[in-house]
Amino acid sequence: MKNLLLMLMLVLAIAGCSRYGYVSLNYPTAPVAYLPEDVNSIAAVNRSLTREEDRDEKIVEAIITTEVAGSDRLASDESIKGVYDAILGLENVLLIIPATVKMYGTGTRELPELLDWNLVADICKTEGADALLVLETFDSNTDLLVSTATSQAAAILSTGSPVPALPGQIKMNVACYWRLYNPKTKLIIDQYQHNSYTSFDIQGGIIPPHALPETAYEAGRAYVERFLPSYYVVRRDLYKRTSGSAKHQFMAGYRRAEVANWQGAIEVWSELSDHGKRKTAGRACLNIAVANEVLGDTENALVWAKRSYEFYDDKLGRDYSKILLRRRNIEGF
């Protein structure tokens, strides 16, 4: 947590005439999945393609699900592109897209059997990769038919007859199943099924040509994000001002905080932390606590939060102390 400052997004809010301000912090959370340490390069292949002899069956499915026949064939490659771009966020990991490997699967949401491990090893050896990422299935559809039927049903109930109306918006769905093969251990490093949804405006019942590629691309990015840290936002309240003779000095500290000069704010508030007026001292201690957390010193933040309540009965300090104690129990800072 000492270098937490590098990962924080700080937003100091001004709440009009309120005596409170707040700062929002983004704290990192661990990735959902991890790559083995010896995996530095990954070959990615698309196995969701349909063989020529299976095209008729796929076209029937497309009609039923309001999918554009043949569109998945092109859009599935967009998912691979999404993986390629997103993996740049992983340190020391290279993605390789083989130019000559063409693989066929079910062409539907039905999951195929595992690839033969000898084939996995051959592809990785040829491409110089440590692992093989396979898009096992890719399937898309929209809710156009359902939305149209719902609109017609609503029109019949309200007017007694259907109206020639089409929905103004559709939801595009892309379902992907990914497997990450390790040729050395002959184990599946990761496997994950994911549904991506994106809404698009339509006119005259025509689905925008960019709807499916964009949704497919985001589906690829979503897979890689499992290996990246995510963040949760926390809000920390602090005081903007106090009353009496120290009000101008107190506000000077807050102004420093507004421009992210937290160390300078601490210097100002420290001079007021033992002020003769208990309310002012308690507020100064509370603000010093928040400033320390912003700077990554959570242990010192807890010390000052406790002091604001124990010495000066500041209720905000009491609540903040409990929050920091819970954080320490969970994260062990």
Neighbour order of strands in the largest sheet: 4-3-5-6-7
Mean pLDDT value: 83
CATH architecture of the largest domain: 3-Layer(aba) Sandwich
CATH class of the largest domain: Alpha Beta
Number of beta strands = 8
How many structural units, i.e. domains? Answer: 2
Structural class: alpha/beta
Helicity level, as a percent range?
Answer: 40-55%
Q: What is the tally of helical segments?
A: 10
The radius of gyration over CA amounts to: 28 Å
What are the low-pLDDT stretches, counting only 5+ consecutive residues below 50? Answer: 1-9, 53-70, 143-149
Largest sheet, in brief, is: 5 strands, mixed
Q: Keywords, please?
A:
333 residues; alpha/beta; Serine Threonine Protein Phosphatase 5, Tetratricopeptide repeat; single chain; 5-stranded mixed sheet; 2 domains
Overall description:
- The chain has 333 residues and is α/β, with parallel strands linked by helices.
- The chain has 2 domains: 4-29 and 236-331, Alpha Horseshoe (Serine Threonine Protein Phosphatase 5, Tetratricopeptide repeat); 41-228, Rossmann fold (3-Layer(aba) Sandwich), CATH 3.40.50.
- Helix content is 41%, strand content 22%.
- It contains 10 helices and 8 strands.
- The strands form 2 sheets. The chain has a 5-stranded mixed β-sheet. The chain has a 3-stranded antiparallel β-sheet with strand order 1-2-8, with helices on one face.
- Helix 2 (71-86) runs parallel beside helix 5 (211-224), helix 8 runs antiparallel to helix 9 and helix 9 (298-310) runs antiparallel to helix 10 (315-331).
- The radius of gyration is 28 Å and the shape is elongated.
